[in-house]
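Ticket #4471: structure output looks truncated?

Reporter: J.K.
Steps to reproduce: submitted the chain below (198 residues) through the standard prediction queue, then opened the result file.
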Amino acid sequence: MDGEKFVISPDTQRNERVPPGQRLTMNLPVLQYGGVHKIDISKWTFKITGLVERDRILSFDQFNALPKTSLIADVHCVTGWSMLETRWEGVSSSVLKSLATILPEARYALVHGAGNFTTNLSLDEFFADDVVFALGYEGKPITPEHGYPVRLVVPRLYFWKSAKWVTGVEFMDEDRRGFWESHGYHNHGDPWTEERYG
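Returned output as attached by the reporter:
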């Protein structure tokens, strides 16, 4: 795609690519709480809310028309598997800065997904260069099992932070724990220091 940005996640440049307590897998496992959400693309929207000058709501066609980023990243699941050199295509989180004026008091992002799922990130981590709202995986559209139509990918944290079936982001001045973070998982989730559980 013309003008597409290409990003390689910094963790892929480490001498040792597999964090402590992890084992390699060659296929991306399917894990989630509950069943796979079936999203009606004609009704799907992406909402930007919270500490912004004005809320924004985008249809799928509007979201899909945003500038794209291709990403190569290693991903690590809290359950103990890691997969190297995964390839994603989507919308960089930084693109949201051009869609909504984020107020200066905002310090955190709460990403919302189908079924009232949420996950929390500091703005520094949310706006890292290798964070994308993925529409594609390995050259094909994201499947329902992996979060169709949009999945957040946050490579430098455990993969539960990479929320499936994303429906928007809320900007906040104070941290608010997401779904897994409220059910015993670590609030941050760094795989290199094994921040698995709170």
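Triage note (M.O.): checked the attachment and the full token line is present. The two ends are 42 Å apart (CA to CA).
Status: closed, working as intended.
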